[in-house]
Hints:
The complex is a heterodimer.
Chain A: H1 7-45, H2 49-64, H3 67-89, H4 98-122, H5 126-134, H6 139-169, H7 182-190, H8 194-223, H9 227-245, E1 256-259, H10 264-279, E2 284-287, H11 292-300, E3 306-310, H12 311-318, H13 327-340, E4 344-352, E5 355-360, H14 361-367, H15 372-376, E6 383-386, H16 394-403, E7 409-412, H17 415-423, E8 429-433, H18 438-441, E9 444-446, E10 458-463, H19 471-477, H20 486-496, H21 505-515
Parallel strand pairs in A: 1-2, 6-7, 6-8
Antiparallel strand pairs in A: 3-10, 4-10, 5-8, 5-9
Chain B: E1 9-19, E2 25-36, E3 41-45, H1 52-59, E4 67-72, E5 75-76, H2 82-87, E6 89-92, H3 104-108, H4 110-114, H5 119-132, H6 150-162, E7 168-172, H7 180-197, E8 200-205, H8 208-214, E9 217-222, E10 225-230, H9 232-236, H10 241-260
Parallel strand pairs in B: 3-8, 3-9, 6-7, 7-8
Antiparallel strand pairs in B: 1-2, 1-4, 4-5, 9-10
Helix pairs in contact in B: 5-6, 6-7
Amino acid sequence: xxxxxxxxxxxxxxxxxxxxxxxxxxxxxxxxxxxxxxxxxxxxxxxxxxxxxxxxxxxxxxxxxxxxxxxxxxxxxxxxxxxxxxxxxxxxxxxxxxxxxxxxxxxxxxxxxxxxxxxxxxxxxxxxxxxxxxxxxxxxxxxxxxxxxxxxxxxxxxxxxxxxxxxxxxxxxxxxxxxxxxxxxxxxxxxxxxxxxxxxxxxxxxxxxxxxxxxxxxxxxxxxxxxxxxxxxxxxxxxxxxxxxxxxxxxxxxxxxxxxxxxxxxxxxxxxxxxxxxxxxxxxxxxxxxxxxxxxxxxxxxxxxxxxxxxxxxxxxxxxxxxxxxxxxxxxxxxxxxxxxxxxxxxxxxxxxxxxxxxxxxxxxxxxxxxxxxxxxxxxxxxxxxxxxxxxxxxxxxxxxxxxxxxxxxxxxxxxxxxxxxxxxxxxxxxxxxxxxxxxxxxxxxxxxxxxxxxxxxxxxxxxxxxxxxxxxxxxxxxxxxxxxxxxxxxxxxxxxxxxxxxxxxxxxxxxxxxxxxx
Amino acid sequence: xxxxxxxxxxxxxxxxxxxxxxxxxxxxxxxxxxxxxxxxxxxxxxxxxxxxxxxxxxxxxxxxxxxxxxxxxxxxxxxxxxxxxxxxxxxxxxxxxxxxxxxxxxxxxxxxxxxxxxxxxxxxxxxxxxxxxxxxxxxxxxxxxxxxxxxxxxxxxxxxxxxxxxxxxxxxxxxxxxxxxxxxxxxxxxxxxxxxxxxxxxxxxxxxxxxxxxxxxxxxxxxxxxxxxxxxxxxxxxxxxxxxxxxxxxxxxxxxxxxxxxxxxxx
Lengths: 519, 267
């Protein structure tokens, strides 16, 4: 099978109108906002050294914040702002998706424009500025007739730099709920779908190059007084803007939005839910790759309607629970806590996706290790690997305390690579996830936790406040409750991590639906 | 008895100093009083740092005086809108000061455009001026400044200064950067325009020979002070050592040329 006949390619192409349109919309809005703010600021600051220094310093600091963090920071910021405006003025706005992404990207776009505009204007020959005064220009006329036209090449270079940055960084707006070409990249990385990753990277690079070249055409037209070029470049940009507004590229308005976090299981489950809703005659779409705290806040704010979370995660992260409760008690506590926020804990799916200590089956058997208690004796000579957050989570502290674990060394790893690392002996133990399909694939074993140091992580369906009494939705979802056992989920996850044509979340969801008999 | 009319430009006890570093102030113009008569061609001569350029800039408020009074056609410039003032006074800059992103025609027509003249009038005026500074024909109007020679650029600079029909023209070392032949031709051509259009011209130069050849009167400045003022003949009567030193060079050159080229001078 060649690359071009790969069905994943046509699936990727099918998403292109939506992803590209959303990506362009947020990028161009951010660039326009960035320009509208930074050009006047630069003009104002060029003769004011203190203001200039301050502004450039702030813009540089913004630039040093990693793009992903900047985008993620805007979400809680806007959420707080929205609750303030609601308390004071009686209205709020959606802090999800477009708005935080656009604001963060606009902020990100400012440094090159500010710096180049100030440099361009301040670098002009003072004799020309005097000539502008001498022939009788007002300061405004001097600015628009002489200074800006002469500084244009330097200013345009800044605008082009920021356009390329913004279009590239916009791929990171997926986790805060803004659909973008990053959806390909996040989904592809999580489900090992390299066709998607490649497609997303190439699409955003092509888009960045195209916008850069159109801006270059405008600049070149001005510089060489060939206005046709500028007009063509401007028309190109205008066409892109118009394109994002056409109905073909507009996000289809569906009544139900299913959220998914950033890992394969979530992609599969969100597809499963969306397929069920469609099967029940409802319109549904998915919003994937959302950050863990973003997705919960988005549900609470009715920006999404339904998603799957895990009891232990909610307990520790959202409600800062530190004690470890038995399964049923945890669920009822959670249910009460969620109800206070008008969120419905609709039910459990039937499996648990908990942290667990995992090692190769053969080695465990050879050493006689069946539980974490057995492991403790060997820990001093073992190394352990976990995902980026594991070692700072309460589960880790609780495990160490309960079993007196003290490993020789600990490492952080991308979750997808942990399983291969432990299977090959690079590390001795990993903190894996119980529902991960790779456990079976690499013939690993999950060690027992006799002291129940790790809290239960039942997969639970959460409904947004506005869906608390939505019988159509609840009727469609009810058949999923309690139907997915751990082996089924592991197999589904293993399928999703495959690198073949049937490994897309949608195909795996169809397989899962058949398997549990809900299709 | 004639009606006493106000001089085109008058300086009365004018002073101007600039901040120089933290503490010291540099006095650029020190108590200068000077009346320029209608239709006069006045040259201001002095070395660098003598204050001659500052004095010129005080007349169209590119700089404002600290003390004393500057009047233009009877009006105290402090009461004049600086932008309007500059639009009615022609100004020729040291190295042309042409806007590199505008064509020759656009450069010449800039002040009329700022004054809101209709486009056809501007075009007619530009054509007229191109002829006046002998740049007609050959499509000079559509060219960009970088396509011109130094002499041509300075002719465009003169045309631009004259575009809005000013009665006063200020020139800041207009021909300083040109080769001697071009410089001489341009000086002569401008002198003819000055007479033909009835202009009042103040020209700054560091070259006494140029001043002697073109100007009606010469003002000599040194360290911000007006050292001497008069016709070439009056200056030669001066007892000031610096003035005499300035006059010595052109005189000696003239004598040497007369000996080297017999029959060229004393007819």
